[in-house]
Amino acid sequence: MDFRFNFVIDGNENNEPDTQDKMDLKLCSPKHKQECTKKRKKTAETVADSSPRQGTDKHRDETPKFCFKAAKEHKIPEDLDKVLENKVMKTASDLYYRSAVDIRCLDGTDEEGIISKSVSSHCDLIPGVYEGGLKIWECTFDLINYFSEAEIEFTDKAVLDLGCGAGLLGIVALKGKAEKVHFQDYNSTVIDEITLPSAVANCINAGSGVNRKTSKPPSKKPKKAEGLLPDALNKCRFFSGEWSAVSKLLLSSKPVSKYDIILTSETIYNPDYYSALHDTLAQLLDKNGRVYLAGKVLYFGVGGGIYIFEKFIEERNVFRSSIVKIIDKGLQRCIMELAFKDSS
């Protein structure tokens, strides 16, 4: 099948976060893990004491609870040319994604009003309204790098990209020959205007011979994989809505969707969301599956962080968790692996 489409590839490497080429990334050796554990426990206590806690009156008053947003599946349009028509695509870590700046200039693409609300409030997060999916956060690239370094195997796996934004984590899994990849974001605008175009661009471009500007390649790339073709989109499904609603929708489908791997980045910023996130992971993860979660040590002004979430996980006693990678450059960030306590 011959695909022709009209979209622009922005080859400026400045589109990728400046920190990407300079990160001090390190996998935890056994000795380092012991040191990390002691450091985490001490830091968790300090962070928990200085941050608003879930359940405190102050936190309830200042931060709205996770608002219900009905689940919706977004069908892949038959006309893939139309999906990418007049879209500006950027590149990062050898992947294509649509820029949020691009859709600010177009009418009729933001039925939820999240772009105008984000701009007017000068805020990347509006709890219960807009949950940050228009922006690619730096922990996404931390996790992509970890896939290569730890040689995470996606072949024939069922994968969920939870809180996907542009969907780069799921697209990497798709390139790694996953059996199926599902994408979820809180906002329908993000799925329609960011995630779907990004997935389509990566699939179509791999087999189309599209011209792109020559630029210096990123210093770190995902594990090499064969190019995607449009048929790879048949492995994908796209969902918007609040986590519990999407989980219910997926569990009601036949056959029931359970995932070998769940990928999620920067979804632990608000402790009010931890219960919904935890329950969604518990309901959708296969009994022997793995969750790979990337997040910052502390999200200033919101109260969440990797150690606070780690403590929450321990208290729930459903998953075993381990910090498998620490990024010390700049604001400290970590990658956590989760598995059921009774899994193999």
From TrEMBL:
Its main location: cytoplasm. Residues 32-61 are annotated as: Disordered. Its EC number is 2.1.1.85. Keywords: Cytoplasm, Methyltransferase, Nucleus, S-adenosyl-L-methionine, Transferase. It holds the Pfam family Methyltransf_16. One of its GO terms (biological process) is methylation. GO terms for molecular function: protein-L-histidine N-tele-methyltransferase activity. The keyword S-adenosyl-L-methionine applies. GO terms for cellular component: cytoplasm; nucleus. It is found in: Cytoplasm; Nucleus. InterPro entries: Methyltransf_16, SAM-dependent_MTases_sf. Belongs to the methyltransferase superfamily. METTL18 family. This is protein-histidine N-methyltransferase. It comes from Patagioenas fasciata monilis. The lineage of its organism: Eukaryota, Metazoa, Chordata, Craniata, Vertebrata. The gene is METTL18.
